[in-house]
Hints:
Shape: rod-shaped
Protein name: Zinc-ribbon domain-containing protein
Number of helices: 2
Oligomer: single chain
Radius of gyration: 29 Å
Organism: Mahella australiensis (strain DSM 15567 / CIP 107919 / 50-1 BON)
Keywords: Membrane, Transmembrane, Transmembrane helix
Distance between the termini: 54 Å
Number of strands: 2
Transmembrane segments: 30-50
Amino acid sequence: xxxxxxxxxxxxxxxxxxxxxxxxxxxxxxxxxxxxxxxxxxxxxxxxxxxxxxxxxxxxxxxxxxxxxxxxxxxxxxxxxxxxxxxxxxxxxxxx
Length: 96
């Protein structure tokens, strides 16, 4: 997706550059190139935002898993490991 946005931004700029050359006047060229730069900024900015969003989501997901590891408890009867939140062993039903 990001590569596509970069390509679209480059195509927009090239089209406006060619349009500027075909106007035949310096003022038309400058306006066309400025327009191309302004219009090409949009896909480039969207690509950067999406890239940073993916990075932030990955960092938050990895931080959440590291921050709250599940504590395990071993059943003295059957040796099954289960979460501390359970009041009895889900394997054999032994209660503490």
